[in-house]
Amino acid sequence: MAKQKQNAVVESEPVGPEAPKAPVPDEIQGQIEKLKADHNAAMVAAEEKFKGALADLVLQHRAAAEAQARAVDAGVQERLKAATAAALAAGADEASTSLELAAERDLQPIQAQVDGAVKSAKQALAEIDTIMEAHGPEIDRLGAVKVEDWQRGLPTQGVDAVPAFNLARSIPKQIEELTNFVRLVHGQFETNKRELERAVQDAPVPFGHRNTDRFFSWRQWVNGALRDLGRVNADTVAHVKSRIHELLGAVSEINRLREKYRGTPESAKPFETEVSWGRTTEQREKMARREGIGLPVQADISYSPYGR
Question: Which of 270, 292, 251, 10 is nearest to 143 (CA)?
Fold first, then answer.
């Protein structure tokens, strides 16, 4: 009986906690690597967030500064108006002030026309200058080539001889005409701009009675100057572009003919003198008919924006 009680006591004693397992180095290393990766990802995300916020603030600051710079200071504007009115009114009687205001009122639409014409012509000139600045280096290089060098490698006999001869001589002429045309446009712009300024200054204001010879003569003067200045326009820009395309076409055609006749007997000899080819169109046509050659049509490429 005592033995059974002993056994019962033993069985009822609580069992102690299980001993913890020893940490495995590989698991700890994995935890370390994960912690590092999480830290790096957090740093990258924070850096990207910072850069985005900074860039946004920089753009906002720039936009705010530009808006502030463009804003009109109402206080300055009002003071300027008051100072201007006082300056114009000082020392002038009521009658002369009325005449000045009437003259200013009459000239406003004319001045608006002049400003519009000048602005449009300036825009066309700026486009022409941009085109010439872009193509200028190549045009200068082409302009430095002599006619004899253009003729080198071209056929001196056969059906392409006369067109090749004329083509080689046309390139320097095209370059000269293009540069002269651009120079002419600039010169005429300045001349007509000054003419308009003189016309506005000499306006018979206030107009009052407009049925007078003086007013009609002045109005014709203004209209003529506006017309001449208005000829510097988009058509002028288009003409400059077309002349450059013509020049490109001529150079490309020379390259094509040189490639076609490379190493052939037709291109072995240099071109003969202009005398032997004939100095006049009639002589060249006779030579072409004798050799069975069709002469190219000579197009009139002269153009003036002030002669239409």
Answer: 251
- For 247, list phi and psi in degrees, rounded to 5: -65, -45
Lowest model confidence (mean pLDDT) among 5-9, 160-164, 283-287: 5-9
Distance CA 167, CA 255 (A): 11
Cα distance between residue 188 and residue 229, in whole Å: 8
Does some domain include residue 275? yes
Q: Which domain holds residue 262?
A: 122-291
pLDDT tens per residue across span 62-116: 888 777 666 656 666 677 777 777 766 655 544 444 445 555 676 678 788 888 8
Tokens of 281: 């169109």
Assigned domain for 55 exists: no
Helix axes 161-201, 281-291, angle to 10 degrees: 150
Q: How far is CA 305 from the centre of its chain?
A: 21
**Residue 292 tokens, joined:** 């069975």
Tokens of 74: 């109402």
Domain annotation covers residue 233 = yes
Establish if 141 belongs to a structural domain: yes
Q: What tokens were used for 128?
A: 């022409």
Distance between CA atoms of 24 and 154, rounded to whole angstroms?
A: 89
The pLDDT, as a whole number, for residue 209 is 60
Query: Could you report the per-residue pLDDT of 214-260, keeping only the tens digit for each?
Result: 777 878 888 888 898 889 999 999 999 999 999 999 999 999 999 99
CA dihedral 104, 106, 110, 112 (to 10 degrees): 60
Domain total in the chain: 1
Q: Which of 275, 274, 273, 277 is nearest to 290 (CA)?
A: 277
